[in-house]
Amino acid sequence: MEGCPFCRRVREVATELDMVVNLVPSARGSRSRDALAEYAAAAGSNVQVPFLLDGDTRLFESEEICRHLIAKYGATVDVPGVGTGFVASALRLGRGGLVDKSALPAPPDRPLVLYSYEGNQFCRLVREVLCELDLPYELRSAGKGSPRREELKILTGGSSQCPFLLDPNSGVQLAESADIVEYLRGRYSRGGASVGSS
C-alpha cells in the first residue's frame, strides 16, 4: 500500500537491492484483501501490510521482510528505520490508501510494468494511482547506479528517467508521471474518472 510507511520501508530495501518484485495493491477496498485475510488466518495474524510471499516464505512484519530480503538476496544494506516513511506518508496523507470508487472491478489480463525507485516523488505519484486503481504491477527497481538504467535507455531511445510505465495489455509506453497518471485514469477507471472522485 503506497501510503503505508511500513510498506515504504520494504520498497526502500527493494530499491537498494535492485530487485524486480511483483506488487499486489492492498489498499482498503482492494480485491486482494480476501486473499490477504486467508494468508493472515493461516499464519495466526491480523490482516496487515506489508505482506511478503516469497516461495514458501510468508511474512507480515516490515522488519522481518527487510531482514529476509537482505539475507536472501544479499547486500550490505541496513534495514531502514520507519521514521522517514511516516514523514513521506504525512505529506501525501490519504493518497494510495483507499481503492477509488471508479476502479474497474477486475484487474487487467497482464500486470503493468513500472520502472521506479523509492524516494522519487514522481514515481510515488504513479504508485499512488496504481494503488488507488487496484492495479497489480511488476516493480523494476531502477535507482541511481542500477543496471536497469541501461534498459531504460534502450526502451526510451536514450533517457534513463523514472518513472517509466509499460502496459503489456495495450502496448503503451510512457515516461512522464503526469502522462502516466492520465493514462492510468483514462484506461483503468470507469468512464476515465479522476481518482478521488465520488
List keywords for this structure.
198 residues; alpha+beta; Glutaredoxin; 2 domains; 38% helix; globular; disordered C terminus
Distance between the termini: 21 Å
Classify the secondary structure makeup into a structural class: alpha+beta
Write down how many β-strands occur, each being a DSSP E stretch of 2 or more residues: 7
Strand order of the largest sheet: 1-5-4-6-7
Estimate what percentage of residues fall within beta strands.
Answer: 5-15%
Which whole number gives the mean pLDDT?
87
CATH architectural arrangement of the largest domain: 3-Layer(aba) Sandwich
N-to-C order of helices and strands: HEHEEHHEHEHEEH
Largest sheet: 5 strands, mixed
Total count of helical runs of at least 4 residues: 7
CATH class of the largest domain: Alpha Beta
Domain GST N-terminal: 1-77, 110-192
Pfam family, one: GST_N_3
Protein name: GST N-terminal domain-containing protein
